[in-house]
Amino acid sequence: IKVYHSSVIGCPGSWTGHIRNADLCGRGYHLCNKSDRKSLLSKITYKDAIKIPGCYAFNAAHDFYKCIDCENRTAHDDLAGVGRACPIKVERRTSCITGGMIDAVRSFESYSNNMAYQYHSGISGVLCCKN
Description:
Blueprint: E1 2-4, E2 8-12, E3 29-31, H1 46-49, E4 56-63, E5 66-68, E6 79-82, E7 88-91, E8 100-103, H2 107-110, E9 125-130
């Protein structure tokens, strides 16, 4: 599914362990992460992101109004995502995308169970960025 032209796409599927283990992106793409914020992720607006069917996670966190590495710690456990099916959506909050924040899972479900950045039911797949 196209998220931002053909530069950012949603690829369906699940993974085991940390999201960095997700091997769902096709050739020429990689799992989007915080390093893609300036070049690609910031071009995705909140208003466009909430129109995307499903919920696609990527390897970053939206904590404290920043786009940061995803880790299983209190301040790094808000798994970033895009899509109208994602459980947490907050407009006008700084994150990896522009104009709002979308989390692929509820943080209390992930951090408290030591499962931050793992696949959860309700996630459609991952966000892939062009190399």
